[in-house]
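// run 5 | inverse folding | seed 20
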């Protein structure tokens, strides 16, 4: 690193001193904290993003958001060239530079890291980073800090995309690195044209949503509500009313996280909405849940969560593959041997996993966390993953899409308008509509809507696919959470010795009982999840296993 570069880093870092006594850690959500503590961290993540761009020779994304957190919080995360999350290999470096106490320490860390990663400025194209932010008032100043970080690497280019949803920024990074235009208008155009294509391919006589059957969307008073309000004008055949689109407090009694956890209607929804199909986005529009309001005093709802969205997507895609396969027999090397897989975590409701398996689908469990789900889904020709919280997407392998495009071309020439040709067209359109970089509430919502119309289903019919088993989650404070070691996607505790056998003995007492424990990623607690055929049984199973954890590891404070 030459002297000019060293001086630039030292001078710019001196303008962003880290807050005293604050230690931050980069996780699945990037860095998140009270916005007043983040300026130095965001500046340093700007440097990391520029270095990542140099290392990969690709465009990198940097998003300022704290998703479903309260409005006073903010955060920052990096999007890799694929549009996915920052590689885990770089997370320790992110932690190290965020917590470096002064400019000299920071420079030393950067110099060592560049040497270890073989990053140089010579003979490489300049670093380029796309920046975006959500609607939080703190976002503008933090985005400026990120720009300062990026441009403290000589020659680096910072391109501000303005206020965008998190999935939009990830989509733009993926698009640019694939040689496509990366703008909000190109995002909206791709989603609306693929949605229109799917609407045109509905079977004759399938149900049309009219004004009396509109979709009402809770925008969480965040960026997603604002964007959907703009975008809905481009959507034909779908009547959408957007509420909570920025006129109230972000994530306060609104949003997918609130609706899914509390199982109540968000602010602005009530008895007048009984019978309507409703959906809720989270603060940065990367999560989506559906719900219907029911007549009661407590504002309770019928929730249609991420597990049900996954089941709907899996049902539809399996049907299209079946149409393509019809009468083909077994083609050993042919396109029709598409490997379709569904990926869940142990937190997925057991009834959803049973339903998917009964459909003949391959279901794989991974440890908790989007990065594990996404990675596993990428191993299939078509991989579908969702968490119950409404975060998920569908991934199509390049090899599968090449085969599908060739098949579609052949079908167009020999049997245009046939069931098979239409099925191939639908699958191609889904691959364009769904955001393959990351979970995206807007693209997910459009796919749900077109499938419901294709099937002729109401939200109530959809919700009847299966009935969730009652569940209970508890947490137990422990001295050391690392004393619990799990295996088999966190479903089995292998340490402490003997605890799994004791858990199995408790599970055996309850019909369709299921229970697992896992250490929290952030605090010294052990999380307990239990399921059974009744709520009382799920509560009792969770309580008895929490007591076991307490006896083995705790302070006598299961709660």
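// decoded
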């Amino acid at each position: 690193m030459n002297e000019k570069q060293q001086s630039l880093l030292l001078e710019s870092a001196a303008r962003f001193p880290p807050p005293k006594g604050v230690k931050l850690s980069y996780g699945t959500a990037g860095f998140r904290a009270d916005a007043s503590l983040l300026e130095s961290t965001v500046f340093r993540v700007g440097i990391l993003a520029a270095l990542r761009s140099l290392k990969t020779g690709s465009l990198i994304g940097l998003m300022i958001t704290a998703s479903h957190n309260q409005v006073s919080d903010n955060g920052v995360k990096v999007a890799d060239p694929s549009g996915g999350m920052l590689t885990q290999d770089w997370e320790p470096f992110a932690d190290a530079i965020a917590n470096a106490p002064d400019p000299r320490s920071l420079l030393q860390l950067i110099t060592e890291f560049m040497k270890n990663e073989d990053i140089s400025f010579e003979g490489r194209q300049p670093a380029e980073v796309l920046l975006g932010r959500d609607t939080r008032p703190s976002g503008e100043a933090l985005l400026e800090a990120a720009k300062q970080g990026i441009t403290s690497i000589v020659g680096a280019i910072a391109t501000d995309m303005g206020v965008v949803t998190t999935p939009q920024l990830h989509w733009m990074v993926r698009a640019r690195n694939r040689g496509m235009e990366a703008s909000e208008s190109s995002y909206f155009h791709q989603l609306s044209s693929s949605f229109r294509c799917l609407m045109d391919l509905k079977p004759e006589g399938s149900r049309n949503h009219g004004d009396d059957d509109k979709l009402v969307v809770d925008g969480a008073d965040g960026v997603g509500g604002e964007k959907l309000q703009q975008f809905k004008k481009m959507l034909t055949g779908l009547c959408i009313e957007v509420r909570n689109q920025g006129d109230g407090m972000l994530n306060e009694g609104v949003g997918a996280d609130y609706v899914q956890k509390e199982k109540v209607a968000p602010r602005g929804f009530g008895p007048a909405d009984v019978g309507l199909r409703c959906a809720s986005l989270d603060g940065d529009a990367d999560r989506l849940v559906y719900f219907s309001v029911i007549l009661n005093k407590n504002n309770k709802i019928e929730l249609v969560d991420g597990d049900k969205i996954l089941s709907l997507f899996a049902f539809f895609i399996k049907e299209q593959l079946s149409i393509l396969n019809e009468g083909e027999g077994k083609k050993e090397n042919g396109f029709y041997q598409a490997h379709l897989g569904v990926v869940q975590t142990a937190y997925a409701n057991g009834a959803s996993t049973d339903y998917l398996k009964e459909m003949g689908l391959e279901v794989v469990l991974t440890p908790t966390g989007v990065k594990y789900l996404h990675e596993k889904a990428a191993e299939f020709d078509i991989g579908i993953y969702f968490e119950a919280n409404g975060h998920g997407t569908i991934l199509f392998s390049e090899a599968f899409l090449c085969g599908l495009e060739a098949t579609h071309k052949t079908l167009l020439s020999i049997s245009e308008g046939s069931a098979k040709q239409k099925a191939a067209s639908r699958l191609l359109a889904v691959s364009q509509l769904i955001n393959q970089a990351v979970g995206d509430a807007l693209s997910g919502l459009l796919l749900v809507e077109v499938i419901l119309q294709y099937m002729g289903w109401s939200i109530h019919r959809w919700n009847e696919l299966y009935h969730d088993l009652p569940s209970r989650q508890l947490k137990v404070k422990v001295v050391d959470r690392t004393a619990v070691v799990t295996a088999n996607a966190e479903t089995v505790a292998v340490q402490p010795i003997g605890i799994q056998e004791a858990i199995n003995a408790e599970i055996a007492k309850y019909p369709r009982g299921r229970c697992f424990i896992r250490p929290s990623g952030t605090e010294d607690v052990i999380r307990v999840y239990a399921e059974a055929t009744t709520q009382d049984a799920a509560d009792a199973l969770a309580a008895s296993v929490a007591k076991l954890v307490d006896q083995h590891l705790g302070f006598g404070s299961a709660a």
